[in-house]
Specification:
InterPro entries: Elp2, WD40/YVTN_repeat-like_dom_sf, WD40_repeat_dom_sf, WD40_rpt
Protein name: Elongator complex protein 2
Pathway: tRNA modification; 5-methoxycarbonylmethyl-2-thiouridine-tRNA biosynthesis
Number of domains: 3
Number of strands: 45
Family: Belongs to the WD repeat ELP2 family.
CATH topology of the largest domain: Methylamine Dehydrogenase, Chain H
Subcellular location: Cytoplasm; Nucleus
CATH architecture of the largest domain: 7 Propeller
Strand order of the largest sheet: 1-2-3-4
Structural class: mainly beta
Helix content: under 10%
Radius of gyration: 28 Å
CATH class of the largest domain: Mainly Beta
Length: about 675
C-alpha cells in the first residue's frame, strides 16, 4: 500500500508579520514548468512554517511544513516569517516565535531536505540571559557579496544582528538595546551597491554596506547602518511624523541601474496613513541624502502592512492593508503623486492584517494576484481579470483551522471530511475530481458548517442516512448540550458536482428542501435562512462559464454556508468531550468531562426521536475521552483518563451493559 500526501488544511497565525511573499523571484513571469516547483509565499501556522506553491490548475496548496521539533507551551507560536527561495539556488526561511527563539531553515539547490539552525542559542552563548524572556516581534535578512545578515527584533527593545559568511556557520554580529519604549514591530534591510567606476573595480567584488529600517511603538522610523567590515550597527537617525504605532516598513531600490543607490522607504502606521521617503547614498558611503516623497491618505482605519512590489511590466506599486478590511494598490501618476489605483476587499468583516502580491506566472499573462491575511487567520485571495481590465475577483484560497483540531469524521459515503477545532469552527473539505483532465485532485473547504462561541471538542456523522434526508452530524463543545445539524441541499449538490456527478434537472430532489442557515447576533444556534436570502445557491452547485465548480470564499464561506441546527440534546452535567455513531446510524454515544464517577457516564441517544435510548452506562471514574462502536455494532468501547477502557455489549433487548473492564494502565489521552 502506498501513502501520499493529498492536502494540508491549516490556518495562519493572526499576526501581521506571519505572512511573507517570496521576494527572490523576478518581476517577470516564470514558465509554468518552473512555477509549480517554486515557493510563492510562506506563513506561520502555530509552531510551523507552511510553504505555499501553485498547483497545475493555479490553485494554492501547502507543499511543505517546516517544523523545529521542539516541545513548546501551547500558547507559543511563530510570530514572524521571512522567505527567500529563488527558482534556482539555495533557499532560506527565517522565523521567530513568541518564546524568543529564532529559527533558520536552509536548503541548498541540490538538496531535498531542509537544515535547521536555532539562531537564538547564539544569544545564550554570548551571556545574554534575557534572550529567553522576550518574544520575537520581527525578522528580516539581506544578502551581500560575501555574507548573509539576519536581523531580529525582540519585545524587550533589542535588535539582534547575526552574520553568515560563505560556507560558514552563523555567528552573532551585534546586539542593540533600544529599551522597552522602542519595541520594533517591523524590520527591513537593503544592501547598498558599490560606487566605484569600471577602472576601480577589483577582481573580487567589494563588500557592501547594509541599511536597516525599523518601526514600532515609539511612532518613529529608525535607520541603522551596518558598514562593510564593521561589527556594529550604527544608528543614523529617527524619522518622525507618524502619530501612531508603526506597523510596517519596506525598502525598494529604483528600477533603473543608473539610479545607483537611490532607494525608496515606505512606512505604515496606526494613524491610518502611509509615508514614502527617498534615500540616496553619496560617494563616500558615509553620507545620505533623505527627502520626503509622499503622504498616502486613503484608509479609514489602522494600516497594518505595507510592501513594495512590481507589476510584470516593471512599474513599482505599493500595496497597503488596513483593518477596514481592504487592500489598496498605490501607483505613481503622471504628475508624480502616489494615488490609490485599486481597492479590493469585502464590505464589513473583521479587518485585514497583512497582504502580499504573489509572484507572476505565465498563465496569469501579466495579471496581478493578491493574498491577504484576515483577523481570523484565514487567507483571502484575489485575482485580476484578463487585461486591460482592472477588476479583481475573489478565488479559492488556502483555508484551515487556526487552533488545535479536536476531531475528524468522514461523511457516510466517504466523499467529504468534517473537522472540528478549538478555534470554535466546524469545517467541511471535499475533493474536486477534474473530469477528462490530467490535473490531480484538488481539495477545497466548501462549507463552514458551524461557527460557535465555545471550543468544539467532537463531531460524528450519522453513519447511515435515511431516504429523503441529507447528511447529519452531532457535535459537542465546551457546553453541556449536543447539537444536531443537517446538510443544506446546496452542500449536497456541490459535493456531487465536485465528484463529477450531475442531478437530473427533472428530478424532484433538485428542489431546495433545506436551505443554508444564518447565525443571529449574540446567538449560538444556526437558524434556517429566509427563502429570500440568495447569498448562495439554494439547491444546485454553482458553475462558472467554463463549467468548473465554484466554491464559496471569504465572508461568503464564513456566513453563507452554515448548516441549520435541527436539535439540541440535554442530559450531560459538564462540557461534552466525545461522541460516536454506530454503523447503522441508529445510536449516538456521548460523554462529558468529569472528575467524579457520577458524571463519568456514557449516554446513548436514539436518532429516530433523539430520546435517551437507555440509562447512562457506568464503568469509569474520570472523563471518557473516546468512544467507538465495533463494525457489527455489537460492542461499544470507551477509554478514559482513569487509565482504563471498558467494553459494553448489546443485549437481546438492544440495550448495552458493561461486559469487561481493563486493569489500570498508562494514562489515556
Amino acid at each position: 500500500m502506498e501513502i501520499a500526501l493529498e492536502h494540508v488544511a491549516v490556518g495562519c497565525n493572526a499576526i501581521s508579520s506571519a505572512l511573507s511573499c517570496n521576494r527572490a523571484l523576478p518581476a517577470s513571469p516564470l514558465p509554468c514548468s518552473e512555477d509549480r516547483d517554486v515557493y510563492c509565499a510562506a506563513f506561520a501556522a502555530k509552531n510551523a512554517v507552511a510553504l505555499v506553491t501553485r498547483s497545475p490548475r493555479q490553485q494554492l496548496h501547502v507543499k511543505e511544513l517546516l517544523l523545529h521539533r521542539r516541545a513548546v507551551a501551547d500558547a507559543t507560536r511563530i510570530t514572524s516569517v521571512w522567505l527567500h527561495a529563488p527558482s534556482s539556488g539555495s533557499a532560506r526561511v527565517l522565523a521567530g516565535d513568541s518564546d524568543g527563539n529564532v529559527w533558520l531553515w536552509t536548503r541548498p539547490d541540490s538538496a531535498a531536505t531542509w537544515e535547521l539552525t536555532k539562531l537564538s542559542t547564539l544569544l545564550v552563548a554570548s551571556s545574554d540571559t534575557t534572550a529567553a524572556t522576550a518574544g520575537v516581534s520581527a525578522v528580516s535578512a539581506v544578502e551581500t557579496h560575501r555574507r548573509w545578515l539576519y536581523v531580529a527584533a525582540f519585545s524587550d527593545g533589542r535588535v539582534v544582528v547575526m552574520e553568515q559568511e560563505r560556507q560558514q556557520p552563523v555567528a552573532l554580529l551585534c546586539v542593540v538595546s533600544l529599551g522597552v519604549k522602542h519595541i520594533m514591530e517591523d524590520l527591513a534591510c537593503v544592501a547598498l551597491r558599490n560606487q566605484e567606476s569600471e577602472g576601480e573595480k577589483e577582481e573580487e567584488e567589494e563588500e557592501e554596506d547594509v541599511l536597516v529600517a525599523s518601526g514600532g511603538v515609539d511612532c518613529k522610523v529608525h535607520l541603522f547602518e551596518i558598514a562593510a567590515g564593521s561589527r556594529e550597527m550604527r544608528s543614523l537617525l529617527a524619522l518622525e511624523g507618524h502619530r501612531g504605532w508603526i506597523r510596517a516598513v519596506d525598502f525598494q531600490r529604483r528600477a533603473s541601474e543608473d539610479d545607483g543607490n537611490e532607494i525608496l522607504l515606505a512606512s505604515a502606521s496606526q494613524d491610518q496613513r502611509g509615508a514614502s521617503a527617498g534615500y540616496e547614498a553619496l560617494g563616500d558611503r558615509r553620507s545620505y541624502s533623505i527627502s520626503f516623497d509622499a503622504l498616502l491618505i486613503g484608509h479609514e482605519d489602522w494600516v497594518t502592512s505595507l510592501l513594495w512590489s512590481r507589476e510584470p511590466a516593471g512599474d513599482s506599486v505599493l500595496v497597503s492593508t488596513s483593518m477596514e478590511n481592504s487592500v489598496v494598490i498605490w501607483k505613481k501618476s503622471a504628475s508624480g503623486s502616489w494615488v490609490p489605483a485599486l481597492r479590493v476587499g469585502d464590505l464589513g468583516g473583521n479587518g485585514l492584517l497583512s497582504s502580499v502580491v504573489l509572484p507572476p506566472t505565465a498563465t496569469l499573462n501579466g495579471r496581478l494576484e493578491l493574498l491577504a491575511l484576515n483577523f481570523s487567520g484565514q487567507l483571502e485571495r484575489w485575482q485580476q481579470e484578463p487585461l486591460p481590465s482592472k477588476i479583481f475577483h475573489p478565488v479559492a484560497s488556502l483555508n484551515g483551522h487556526c487552533s488545535a483540531v479536536t476531531d475528524l469524521s468522514w461523511s457516510p459515503r466517504g466523499d467529504y471530511l468534517l473537522s472540528t477545532s478549538l478555534d470554535q469552527t466546524t469545517r467541511v473539505i471535499a475533493p474536486f475530481h477534474a473530469m477528462n483532465e490530467t490535473n490531480p485532485t484538488s481539495w477545497h473547504e466548501i462549507s463552514r458548517a458551524q461557527v460557535h462561541g465555545y471550543d468544539i471538542n467532537c463531531a460524528t456523522f450519522l453513519s447511515a442516512t435515511p431516504e429523503g434526508r441529507n447528511d447529519r452530524f452531532v457535535c459537542g463543545a465546551d457546553e453541556k448540550i449536543l447539537r444536531v445539524f443537517e446538510a443544506p441541499d446546496s452542500v449536497q449538490s456541490l459535493v456531487q458536482a465536485m465528484q463529477g456527478h450531475r442531478r437530473d434537472s427533472g428530478d424532484a430532489s433538485t428542489e431546495p428542501r433545506i436551505q443554508h442557515a444564518y447565525l443571529p447576533e449574540l446567538s449560538l444556534t444556526n437558524k434556517n435562512a429566509d427563502d429570500s436570502d440568495k447569498g448562495v445557491s439554494g439547491g444546485r452547485a454553482v458553475l462558472d462559464d467554463a463549467g468548473h465548480v465554484c466554491v464559496a470564499v471569504g465572508d461568503t464561506l464564513a456566513r453563507k454556508t452554515l448548516w441549520p441546527e435541527q436539535r439540541k440534546l440535554y442530559g450531560h452535567g459538564n462540557e461534552i468531550l466525545c461522541a460516536a455513531s454506530n454503523h447503522q446510524g441508529t445510536l449516538v454515544a456521548s460523554a462529558c468531562k468529569s472528575r467524579e464517577e457520577r458524571f463519568a457516564t456514557i449516554w446513548l441517544w436514539n436518532t429516530e426521536d433523539w430520546s435517551a435510548a437507555q440509562a447512562p452506562l457506568e464503568g469509569h471514574k474520570s472523563s471518557v475521552v473516546q468512544l467507538a462502536f465495533s463494525p457489527n455494532d455489537e460492542f461499544l468501547v470507551s477509554v478514559s483518563k482513569d487509565r482504563q477502557f471498558c467494553v459494553f455489549q448489546r443485549r437481546a433487548d438492544a440495550t448495552f451493559e458493561l461486559q469487561w473492564r481493563s486493569h489500570r494502565g498508562p494514562r489515556t489521552t
